[in-house]
Amino acid sequence: YRLLFSKVGIPASHYYRIVGEGAPEEEAKQYSSIVKTTVPTMDGVPVFDFVLLGIGEDGHTSSIFPDRQELLTAGEPYEVSVNPYNKTVRICMTGRPLIEARHTCFLVTGENKCSILKEILDKNKEEVYPASYIWHHARNPQLYASHENEAVIFCITDKFCLVELSQYLSMRKM
Mean per-residue pLDDT for 87-108? Predict the structure, then answer.
């Protein structure tokens, strides 16, 4: 809160921290309950104004890893996830609130993300990569991508930009 939200005038009373050091199952239930009572809903799904996501090199997002596709359609807004690589337990926002958000934004940087970004933008890969599923189903997805040490930032919101980015990625070494 102190480093980010206090700088933009969001009162502390509007900030609800996920207690990651607590019991994960209990905290996921508790946080789901808080969100369902404080965030407007549509058909029982919390609708956030803005969700900011990253993308992992394996195509995961919001701690929804490729081996946990069921989290994309889970009934609760928050669930427990386990990182398959280092077995750390995480609490993730599930797919339905990510998709229903008014703006779902991905921020992707680095050479190591070029290959997976091409995969995520391919609609045929939405059943393989959670980030692809969210990208192709979100109400208003946006993707900002930049390459390390370059001032180029692509904002993808339509097919024209997808073609432009695809051409750019084709020129990069994969």
Answer: 95
